[in-house]
Amino acid sequence: MLVVVVVVVLHVAGIFHLRVPESSHVGSAVGKIVAHDLDHGKNAQVEYSIIPGDGGTMFDIVTNELNQEGIVILKKVCV
């Protein structure tokens, strides 16, 4: 299980748990995360990242600039 903590400057917006099926392929999107910031303009932009830790080398996360979703990508399979 991957635990994602979304941190907004000066705020913690939430913690998300994501279960990834063992049948998932490397390079595939295995989840989406959405966080909303109530600020406006540039201050409302959300950016996701995975910090080093238990799942830091197995997953990557990219921010979809259009809808502010975080797309979780499987980087390698746990053996």
Would you give an account of this structure?
With 79 residues, the chain is an all-beta fold. Helices cover 0% and strands 41% of the residues. The chain has no helices and 5 strands. A 3-stranded antiparallel beta sheet has the order 3-5-4, with no helix packed on it. Strands 1-2 form a two-stranded antiparallel ribbon. The chain is elongated. The mean pLDDT is 75.
Give the helix/strand layout.
Blueprint: E1 2-8, E2 11-18, E3 29-34, E4 59-63, E5 69-74
Q: Summarize the helix and strand pattern as letters.
A: EEEEE
Average pLDDT metric: 75
Distance between the termini: 14 Å
Main beta-sheet strand count, sense and barrel state: 3 strands, antiparallel
What strand line-up does the widest sheet have? 3-5-4
Number of helices: 0
| Outline type | elongated
Binned strand content: 35-45%
Output the keywords.
single chain; 79 residues; mainly beta; three-stranded antiparallel sheet; two-stranded antiparallel ribbon; 41% strand; elongated
Task: Provide a concise account of the structure shown.
By secondary structure, the chain is mainly β. The protein has strands spanning 2-8, 11-18, 29-34, 59-63, 69-74.
